[in-house]
Amino acid sequence: MTAIWSVNRQQFIDNAKKVRHNQNLMAVVKNNAYNYGLEFSVEAFLEAGIDTFSTTSLAEAIRVRKIAPNATIFLMNAVYDFDAVRDNHIHMTLPSLTYYYQYKEELQGIHVHLEFENLLHRSGLKTIQEIKEVLEDHANNQNEDKMIISGLWTHFGYADEFDVPEYGIEKQAWVDVVDALLSEGYHFDLIHAQNSASFYREEQQLLPHHTHARVGIALYGSRPYSSLSEDVISQSLTVKGNVIQVRDVNKGDYCGYSFAYEVEQDHTKLAVVDMGYGDGILRTRAKHEAIINGKRYPIKALMMSHMFVAVDETVTAQDEVILYNEDMRIDEYTFKGVGANSEQLSALNHDSLIKEIR
Ligand SMILES: *Cc1c(COP(=O)(O)O)cnc(C)c1O
Question: What is the pLDDT of residue 341?
Answer without folding.
Answer: 98
